[in-house]
Automatic annotation (TrEMBL):
Domain spans labelled F-box: 1-46
Highest taxon in the source lineage: Eukaryota
SMART domains: FBOX
Organism: Cerrena zonata
UniProt protein name: F-box domain-containing protein
Length: 506
């Protein structure tokens, strides 16, 4: 290739991935200078390091590169371009949701309002709209703005109290979704018509009732792909049709391929009328958690992961870049472990790529493929032993590699002193170690702790951390911070003691 014109060499470089591009820079000075002097290749490298992908904006490469650097610098320094509040309905039993940069709230049992979170850097304007009458009484909802999908969980039907009706509507105007062959999904169960955990990933819609019944549909066809029961059910979608489910008794996390689900060795049949036990499911692979010490048991589980994989990028508004949905994102598993009336609440921060790499390397589909903790966990996780409360299902405090939480002045007091922002992007962490930002870098590869685990737990996942001081308290009982692609959102009381959301956007 040394005999090729520089222009042709650079053209070829545009078709290789980041790892290969870095290696090409190390071949010779000529290649390194060619790569470093090409704006398109610089943009490609910085997108990959940031965990982003190119968007659908018509701006030129130079402008997109400038905006990308501004966006990253704003997150690195927590310097927001906009800081405003949104008044929300004060009724405590009406649902909220933050998904795809859209903050939404049920305003009555039949209506809902939406607010698009703005971003001056990415050119996303404020937008508000509402649907005044959805012609049904719903108790919970989920949404996927990238597919214009609104999922409504209807309240109990007095004529058939065991029937759960799930309505598939458009987010823009609440009519039947045109891609759904059946706009009303139904499942028979005696579980109550509340306490839903609703998540959407591409063609999959999953709903968990009361943490003990999980149903996964292909929402466009209406077919059930999986229905299971078990204690403390929580889940996260992964790329390539996988779903992760932690198990209480086995102290592990199983990965199930939704296209190959099997029960007791036989393929799962969507025609099965009753849900199967999670203990009877065959899985692609199980990831063992640290074994518990004698007398300890898991009392609660909650898993968070956003954005959902296989999420289709939105065409409007056009943006210069966006988060890679199938990239090296972050899974957070909250665990409550009890013994003799006392509890410990460790949190597991897990890289999705480490899970996916092992799934690809484990072709067998069985009930015995289990990786012990020491073979995967120490190099892929950070286990935080601090006893912070599980924020529950609703807070969206994870997005991509970003994680946010409130830091309180004193344990047991509601007034937070700061928002803690942690970025688990490993490429950015390694880059920060060579710059003046290294003092913000954190590593879990120190010491270790044992109880409630049988042996000391030492992990090596690293991250970068920043704190933003707050002047106002968080709203009880919603003591949590939320994060999306361009903003941190905090519930707080208004002067008249109703609920507001403080939005700090980039």
């Amino acid at each position: 290739m040394n005999e090729l014109p520089t222009e042709l060499t650079v053209h070829i470089f545009h078709y290789i991935d980041l790892r290969s591009l870095v290696r090409c820079r190390q071949v010779c000075r000529t290649w390194n200078e060619a790569i470093q002097c090409d704006l398109g290749l610089l943009y490609k490298q910085e997108l990959a390091v940031a965990g982003l992908e190119d968007g659908n904006s018509e701006t030129d490469v130079a402008e997109r590169l400038r905006l990308l650097r501004k966006h990253q610098e704003a997150w690195d320094n927590l310097e927001f371009t906009d800081d405003f509040v949104i008044d929300m309905h004060p009724h405590p039993f009406l649902s909220w949701e933050l998904q795809g940069g859209v903050l939404s709230q049920q305003t009555t049992m039949r209506s809902i309002s939406f607010r698009q979170i703005p971003s001056k850097v990415r050119g996303i304007a404020k937008k508000e709209w509402s649907i005044a009458d959805l012609d049904i009484m719903f108790v919970d909802f989920g949404l996927d703005p990238s597919q214009d999908l609104l999922v409504l969980a209807e309240g109990s039907d007095l004529n058939n109290p065991d029937a759960h009706h799930i309505h598939l509507r458009t987010l823009t105007n609440g009519v039947r979704h045109p891609l759904a062959s059946n706009s009303v999904l139904q499942y028979e169960s005696k579980h109550p018509h509340y306490d839903h955990n609703i998540r959407i990933s591409g063609d999959y819609l999953a709903i968990c009732w009361e943490d003990c019944l999980l149903v996964v549909w292909e929402w466009k066809s209406g077919e059930i792909r999986l229905a299971m029961t078990g204690p403390l059910l929580t889940f996260a979608f992964l790329p390539n049709n996988f779903i992760l489910i932690p198990r209480q008794d086995e102290v592990d996390i199983i990965a199930i391929d939704l296209t190959q689900a099997a029960v007791n060795g036989a393929p799962y049949s969507p025609e099965i009328d009753t849900a199967v036990s999670v203990s009877d499911l065959y899985y692609h692979c199980a990831f063992g958690l640290p074994p518990l010490a004698p007398g300890y048991k898991i009392n609660d589980l909650e898993m968070r992961y956003d954005p959902q994989p296989s999420c289709h990028p939105t065409e409007s508004p056009p943006v210069p870049f966006r988060t890679t949905h199938d990239g090296d994102n972050l899974i957070v598993l909250y665990v409550t472990i009890v013994k003799d009336g006392s509890s410990t609440l460790p949190r597991f921060f897990i890289r999705t790529t480490s899970i996916m790499q092992r799934l690809v390397a484990t072709p067998a589909y069985s009930k015995d493929a289990k990786l012990p903790w020491h073979t995967w966990g120490p190099s892929s996780c950070w286990v935080d032993p601090s006893n912070r409360d599980n924020p529950g299902t609703w807070p969206r405090n994870v997005f991509g590699t970003k994680y946010v939480e409130l830091q309180f002045k004193r344990i047991g007091f509601p007034e937070p002193s700061a928002v803690v922002f942690a970025d688990f992007n490993q490429l950015k962490y390694r880059k920060s170690m060579t710059t003046s930002d290294s003092e913000e870098a954190c590593s879990s590869d120190v010491g270790g702790f044992a109880p409630p685990f049988r042996e000391p737990v030492i992990t090596s996942l690293s991250w970068r951390e920043k704190r933003l001081s707050l002047k106002r308290e968080a709203m009880e009982p919603h003591r949590a911070a939320l994060v999306c692609e361009d903003a941190i959102v905090i519930p707080q009381p208004s002067p008249d003691y109703t609920i507001q959301f403080r939005v700090m956007s980039i």
